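Human: Here is a favour to ask of a fellow structure person. Comparing notes only helps if you start from a blank page. Give me a protein, with the fold worked out from its sequence. Please set it down just below, with no commentary around it:

Assistant:
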Amino acid sequence: MTLQGTKRKITYVTTYEAFAFLCGTLGFFSFSDSSIERASTLAVFASIFAVSWNFTYNALFERWEAKSMTLGRSFGRRVLHAVGFEIGFLVVLLPAAAWWLDISFMRSFIVNLSLNIFFFAYTFAFTWAFDRVFGLPTSATSPEGG
């Protein structure tokens, strides 16, 4: 089955975020000494932001990808995709976590870095598996995205 366009993006974000929410809650709880309620509230914020960022980032990435001379999704392109997403996410979540969990920016950086390392691998593996199940988007299979 091949998904394209908005339906593909919604399916991707929904399935990705379901697992990400659980991991985020456990990560914030484990590494910050906060209550499970505060950790899960931050994970809700992180998920809402991630859904918005994910949709926007993937649309921008696919626009760039469609203009690329090289088709397909190589290992390097998948790494670039995951790194770009995680950097954008860190820029927003680092100060939010420090404030909400009442921890220092350094502690927030360590918490977020730990989660980013996990999510870097998760994003890479999830996107690969998603493409295997649902096929590549048009942007990765034809010049100028179709």
About this structure: The chain has a mean pLDDT of 84.
